[in-house]
Amino acid sequence: MDKTVFKNILQFLIILIFNSFLAQTVPQKLQRNTVINDTIPKVVSDTITKKDTIVLPKESLEDVLRTKADSKRRDVPKKMIYLVQNAQVKYQDMQIDADYISIDEEKNIIYARGKLDSLGKITELAQVDQAGKKYEVESFSYNTKTREAIAYNARTEESEGLIVAIKTKKYNDSVFVMRHAEFTTDKYYIDKKDKRPDYHLLASHIKMQKGKSNSTLIVGPAQMYIEDVPTPLVMPFAILPFSDKRSAGILIPSFGEREDVGFFLNGLGYYQPIGEHFDLRVLADIYTKGSWNLRPEMNYIKKYRYNGNFAADIGNTVRGIKGLDNYSKTGTYRIAWRHTQDTKANPFLTFSASVDVTSQTFYNNTVNNNYIMDQSVLRTQQNSTLTLTKRFLTLPITITGTASYNQNFATGLADLRLPQMNIAINQFYLFGSKTGVRQGLLENITVNTGINLTNSVSTEEGELFTKAMWDKLQTGVRNNIALGTNTTIAKYFTFSLGANIDNALTTKTLTRAYDPIENKVVDQVNKRVAGYSTFSTSASLQTTLYGMLNFKKGGAVEAIRHMMMPSLSFSYSPDFGAPGFGYFRNYYDAAGALTPYSIFDMGIVGSPVSGEVGAMGYNISNNIEMKIKSKSDSTGVKKIKIFESLNINGNYNFLAKSHPFSIINVTGQTSLFDSKLSINTSLAIEPYKILFVPGTDTGIRTEDFGSFSVQGFNVQMSYPLSSEIFQDKNEKKDLSKIYNKKGEIRNENYYFDDDNYAHFEQTWSLNVNASYAYTRNLTREGTRIASVGLDGNMKLTPFWNVTGSTHYDMITGKLAYTRIGFARDQRSFTINFNWVPFGQYKVYDFFIGIKANILSDALKYKDRSFTQPNAPF
User: Residue limits of the LPS-assembly protein LptD central domain (predicted)?
Assistant: First the structure.
């Protein structure tokens, strides 16, 4: 009975439980079925069918947190983990190594700090490595949930630079904000070889943005410090990009003082790349006395095609004090364009440009000190040229079109040739060869010919492209045909024949007359088409002779060799001044004498030569060498050049009515002392006696031959000296073998002896040049020019370099242009100082530039443009 009652009760409980289960599950199934099939009757759901609101909590860590340390402790109630000594935490892509690390499991914060000494001062920084980037910090907090971090006194290396900030906050993996941060590129400080950097930029705020391939620092107000000493260089802001690509940046100026225009900032500006093919640089020069200068420049390049740059220089030069007589204000300008085509781009069509146009007084009034340092202020001329050349694959013709503009600052005139076209036919042989090897005079006849078209005008700067200029414009066409041939006679003589034909046509002719009222010769240019033709022939015979003079064996001089190349030539041309040609006319001068002139004088196609010429010319070229004993040479002898070349030439005109002998010209070139001393000289000798009338300074050539006098003499010498010349190559000192102690940090280029005196390689070079010129030109007293110049540099220490150049005028006894420069290498930056102490322009220029490649665009110490690095403008 009891068992039966127990079974019934158990069955009843099972039925209740099963019914309860059906009450929860069946209605939900039915509801889902009603969506699929409307024929299934709907059942009213019970409140028990509501979804369960209990959700498992999400893990606070997205990855496994790995820890290790010499000592570990876990505080369960506070949900804290403490790691002490050689502590390490690895989480996702981050690894932290520190002396102390704590992990707050409730707040999801990891805190780390460096090693403390007994006084509580950090002696060893904590190391943080995230995604391959390393950081050193005194203390560090990281939120594993938000991925934000705060670091104190963190050292952050970025490319070649280092940032040390009192406080750094990381917002995400690409944005960092820093407070009171120092930035430097000093390699010694980065590598911890030195305790402080040689320079740094101190900024109140820095924002660093990281990209996939580059990073950028946005710097707030920053001041430059050198050896922890503040400088006046303060930037309100700066953007420092760290990338291999070109990027924008500030151009650091030089500063100094110039006597005529005051204190200055020279070269202050901004650099901006424009796409892959262009960049723009804008510079400004500012002076305290009111002068200013603006210099924009654009460079462009297309690889394997062309490259070039546009540049301008516009400014005002103010001198003196306003209201006084010495006050002046001069506007200046300069426009330049350089274009070079790659030789492989198109061999049949090439274009080049070298345009340089300035105001007439530009160099005398420039405020750009670069023109003073490179002596451009001494220029007397400026040339500009545009050239277009066309070649053909099947035609032996080359067509060259040229436009040129030449300025003469001394005369104030400008010569404009626009356009100028030359059609040249490639040299060809007049006759073919029967055997394949050209022999004899006929088979060796060559022809050179071409046509030249020129439009030219010489005018003043203010008349350019005005009616006055077009009225002066001359047009001319010229054709030249040159025939030549040569052959060998008796094996040792070369015989040459030649003929030259010139044809010219011009649109302007000349009429010359003497005006007795004005007491001067008046030239009148006529608009009339006229032309002339001239021809000449020549023949020459030349050979080479050798002579050797041997001395006794054992002597200091073993032999002298003389090579002489004499040549004789004969040339003939008729008298184109004869009345039958119509090329020459006559006018009566102030003395009433009939004076001939050519109607083509002052023209652009030249003028014929008057007087019949039947001249015998001579030329003797010499080369003299000497063999001497030499212990330094492995052969035991050494060659010395006495004269590399010694030439004597002149001619005798058989058909001349007077003075048949020409002036004798002697030129020589040699190099002595192991080819170090270079000497070039020339001498002009007048074979006729010069007669001077009392009271006059200009002489008259008489027919008295044989009274030789010097009419001109010139000699130029240069000798490069250097420290290597005075060192024995076999006894060159190796400081590392002599001194065992080598310097460290800043003194790694020095070796120290036992008394701690520094030793180093002190190199220097000095180029000495001298010139002397004497010119007489039939005057009683000739003019003399003599000067000595020095140009050199010396390394006072491995970090100090001194350069300079000067010229001493021996006639006036005064120093001419002189420049002195100092350069100091401060490891990661350079200090340059240039000084012109006297002369028309007294100026000193001071510049500080950072050498790091990552700042070459940002601060532009190195002008890393994609075109030429040291552009001339």
Answer: 218-688
CA distances from 503 to 221, 482, 485, 527, 605 (A): 73, 12, 22, 19, 9
Q: How far is CA 14 from CA 3, 10, 23, in A?
A: 17, 6, 14
Residue-level pLDDT at 243: 65
From the list 661, 575, 587, the residue with the least C-alpha distance to 618 is 661
What mean pLDDT is predicted for residues 479-492? 93
E strand or H helix at 340: strand 328-341
Instruction: Look up residue 734 and give its amino acid.
Output: D
Give the span between the Cα atoms of 587 and 594, in whole angstroms.
Answer: 6
- Total Cβ atoms within 10 A of residue 791: 17
Of 566, 688, 568, 686, which Cα lies nearest the Cα of 617? Answer: 568
| CA–CA distance, 314 with 297 (Å, rounded to integer) | 12
The H-or-E segment that residue 364 falls in is helix 362-365
d(CA 262, CA 256): 9
pLDDT value of position 36 = 34
Spatial neighbors of 172 by CB under 8 A, at least 6 apart, are 147, 148
Contact 777, 684 (CB under 8 A): no
Q: Which residue has 């740059």 as its token pair?
A: 309
Reported for 683-687, long-range contacts at CB under 8 A and 24+ positions apart, including other chains, are: 683/710, 683/712, 683/713, 683/714, 684/710, 684/711, 684/712, 684/713, 685/709, 685/710, 685/711, 686/710, 686/711, 687/661, 687/663
Distance separating alpha carbons of residues 691 and 342, to the nearest angstrom: 60
On average, the pLDDT of the chain sits at 84
With residue 470 as reference, give the H or E element that holds it: helix 467-472
pLDDT greater than 80 at residue 765: yes
Query: What is the arithmetic mean of pLDDT over 792-819?
Result: 88
Q: What are phi and psi of 35, to 5 degrees?
A: -75, -35
Residues counted in the chain? 873
The mean pLDDT of 543-552, rounded to a whole number, is 90
Give the contacts of 583 (CB within 8 A, at least 6 positions apart): 532, 576, 577, 598, 599, 600, 607, 608
**What pLDDT, on a 0 to 100 scale, did the predictor assign at position 742?**
75
3-state DSSP percent of the chain in helix, strand and coil, to 5: 10, 60, 35
Q: Is the peptide bond before 798 cis (omega within 30 degrees of 0)?
A: no
* Sign of the dihedral through C-alpha 181, 186, 192, 193: negative
**322-327 average pLDDT score:** 83
Please tell me the distance from the alpha carbon of residue 215 to that of residue 756, in angstroms, as a whole number.
Answer: 45
**In whole angstroms, what is the distance from residue 345 CA to residue 355 CA?**
22
Q: Yes or no: say if 198 and 227 are a contact pair by the CB < 8 Å rule.
A: yes
Q: What is the pLDDT of residue 44?
A: 43
Phi, psi values for residue 381, rounded to 5°? -140, 155
Rounded Cα gap, residues 503 and 477, in angstroms: 8
- pLDDT score for 169: 92
Quick one: tokens of 64?
Answer: 């496994």
Q: Provide mean pLDDT across the span 561-586.
A: 94
Q: What average pLDDT does this structure show over 220-247?
A: 80
- For the ranges 33-42, 616-625, 817-826, the lowest mean pLDDT is seen at 33-42
The SS3 assignment for 376 reads helix
Tell me what percent of the residues of the chain surpass a pLDDT of 70.
87
CA separation for the pair 517, 170 (Å, rounded): 94
The most distant pair of C-alpha atoms in the chain lies apart, rounded to whole Å, by 176
Q: Which of 373, 311, 380 is nearest to 339 (CA)?
A: 311
Calpha distance 106→75 (Å, rounded)? 12
Quick one: CA dihedral 182, 185, 189, 190, positive or negative? Answer: positive
Cα separation, 164 vs 190, in Å, equals 10
**Using CA atoms, how far apart are residues 516 and 756, in angstroms rounded to an integer?**
88
- The string of pLDDT tens digits covering residues 631-650 is 766 667 888 888 889 999 99
Tokens for 754, please give them: 């036992």
